[in-house]
Design goal:
alpha/beta; Rossmann fold; 2 domains; 6-stranded parallel sheet; 3-stranded antiparallel sheet; globular; binds ligand NAX
């Protein structure tokens, strides 16, 4: 029996948490022979902590053989203690009439605190994956607090966008989903992000040779992927939850699978023309479990460069809004 890994999850009683925790405990994230201890962190709010109790009861009732323990807490120092993976899902939602700058600042405070505590108490091999929005900038803020853990341990999720793009290309081409490969997301997890269709393949052919309608690729395809979250809210009355949880399972599963090639948001270091200090989606190849190298070999055409410039501008603006929070 392997040693259990400790997985801290914030926002554990939220709607993504409700889809996510059961997948982790069942082995979908770390594999069918990897035991886990779930360290569930909620906001210090009575209703949330009560709901968390109910979630923990349901986890017990699943009798998952791989689930070796559950911690429930509102104290990040307890929740992140010795954590090997820190999944930062919890965030403050945008309220009515709230400006984007206010959302950035309010969430920034949460991620400053969590970044500091993770750096102080998480395991030496800790990896951090941020889902709570604005995910890229929250990730950047958390990473900026770390003195012990290097910046490349902090990634933000753009996998939901990648999965959405893959699905849309398959539908348009009328092929099985698995025929679509190498579709990667560049930039922000927001409508500005860019699904780089020119590098995708469908049944081994360039996607642009199979889908020859370039107006569709440049227009409705990019828009559908970028605004999918809003379309789901309009249809369902709530934001994406099960698909977001599934994407986080994919994000981490790919990061622990050497050889996997997938999109994550990482510190750009100037790659693909992004500002050096923003966290931007781009393709990576997993090297050893939890580690990756950025794939820098893709060549961008003028359309791609203009899309990347637009999403970079938004990321740079977000960074400017929270400049006083970054150490
Ligand atoms: P919910 O509002 O259902 O749940 C969020 C939970 O976080 C709540 O239970 C709340 O009490 C908790 N929380 C708030 N502050 C906390 C803190 N400081 N510490 C611990 N817990 C805290 O939201 P949900 O639908 O689960 O979405 C969570 C986040 O994911 C949101 O920010 C959302 O915008 C973001 N998303 C990101 C996506 C991505 O692809 N990166 C896609 C889906 C989702 O929209």
């Amino acid at each position: 029996m392997k040693t259990p890994i400790r997985v801290a999850v914030t926002g554990a009683a939220g709607q993504i948490g409700y889809s996510l925790l059961f997948r982790i405990a069942s082995g979908a994230m770390f594999g069918p022979d990897q035991p886990v201890i779930l360290q569930l962190i909620e906001a210090p709010v009575e209703k949330a902590l009560k709901a968390l109790e109910g979630v923990a009861m349901e986890l017990d009732d699943c009798a998952f053989p791989l689930l070796k323990g559950i911690v429930q807490t509102a104290d990040p120092a307890v929740g992140f203690k010795d954590a090997n993976w820190c999944l930062l899902v919890g965030a403050k939602p945008r309220g009515p009439g709230m400006e984007r700058a206010d959302l950035l600042k309010d969430n920034g405070k949460i991620f400053i605190g969590q970044g500091q505590v993770i750096d102080a108490v998480a395991a030496a091999d800790a990896r951090i994956a941020v889902v709570g929005n604005p995910a890229n900038t929250n990730c950047m803020i958390a990473a900026s607090q770390a003195k012990r853990l290097p910046a490349d341990r902090f990634t933000a999720m753009v996998r939901l966008d990648q999965n959405r793009a893959q699905s849309q290309l398959a539908k348009k081409a009328g092929v099985d989903l698995t025929a679509v490969k190498d579709i990667f997301i560049y930039g922000n997890h927001s409508p500005s992000m860019f699904p780089a269709f020119a590098h995708a393949t469908i049944n081994g052919q360039p996607a642009t040779a199979v889908i020859t309608d370039s107006a569709w690729l440049q227009g409705p395809f990019c828009e559908t992927v970028g605004k999918r979250g809003a379309a789901i809210i309009a249809a369902r009355g709530s934001s994406s939850a099960a698909s977001a949880a599934n994407a986080l399972v994919d994000h981490v599963r790919s990061l622990v699978t050497p050889g996997a090639i997938h999109s994550i948001a990482v510190k750009s270091e100037g790659r693909y023309g992004f500002d050096a200090n923003v966290w931007a989606g781009m393709p990576v190849r997993t090297t050893t479990p939890g580690s990756y190298e950025v794939i820098t070999s893709y060549v961008m055409d003028d359309f791609a460069k203009s899309k990347i410039a637009a999403t970079n501008k938004e990321l740079a603006e977000e960074r400017a809004f929270v400049a006083d929070m970054i150490q």
